[in-house]
Amino acid sequence: MLAALLITNVYLWFNNKKSDDARIVYQNDNKSLQSQKTHLETQIDSLENQLEQANTGKAKLSKALIASNDSLKAKIKSLRVKLYNGKLTAEELAKAQEDVKQLRYFVTKYTADIDDLKKQNASLTSERDTLKTNLATVSEKASTLQKQNEDLNTKVTIASALKVGNINITPLKVRSSGKEVAKTRAAATKKIKIDFTVASNAVAEKRLHDVFVRVIDPTGNLITGTDSGNFQTDGQELQYTYKTAIDFKDDGSGYTIEWTNPNAFQKGVYTVLLYADGFTMGKTSFTLK
Question: What is the pTM of this model?
Answer without folding.
Answer: 0.52
